[in-house]
Design goal:
The structure is a homodimer. With about 80 residues, chain A is of the alpha+beta class. Chain A has two helices and three strands, in the order βαβαβ.
């Protein structure tokens, strides 16, 4: 078993409204950042997993996303394993 | 003026406790993911900025982080501009 670091990015689907991102955009514009055309807001998770192989670590991270970390209806996710 | 996409990652400082990450770790372990050694939870923002140059877009994104998007006491941030 080796320790792998998995970087997981969970973002709202492109086709859906993103109220949190819109709130951030409005707050930025109110602060004077008028050149902000859009903001999308999501989560970034860094998970340390013990797994026998790198592929197995990636597979476990995807299962975690499917079961807990991402909403399969409204969010997309991406997992990057290192080293 | 060109449109630039800035990917901003805001994470809790490594030296600080991360209660949100710990909550996710406990939830994963309760679901049976016993090989999760740690979880750190942060934000991922994708900001579309109109700016004259790529460097200017990066500078504006850093100012946004300093003024609104990141807590300078508890969080670190990273900005990646594309294209």
């Amino acid at each position: 078993m080796s320790a792998y670091t998995v970087e997981i990015r969970v973002m709202p689907r492109a086709s859906l409204l993103d109220p949190q991102g819109q709130a951030v955009q409005h707050a930025l514009q109110a602060l004077g950042f008028r050149d902000v055309a859009s903001v999308r807001a999501g989560k970034h998770l860094v998970v340390e997993v013990d797994a026998p192989t790198r592929d197995e670590a990636a597979a476990r991270a995807r299962t975690m996303c499917d079961r807990l970390l991402a909403n399969p209806v409204t969010e997309d996710y991406e997992c990057i394993v290192s080293p």
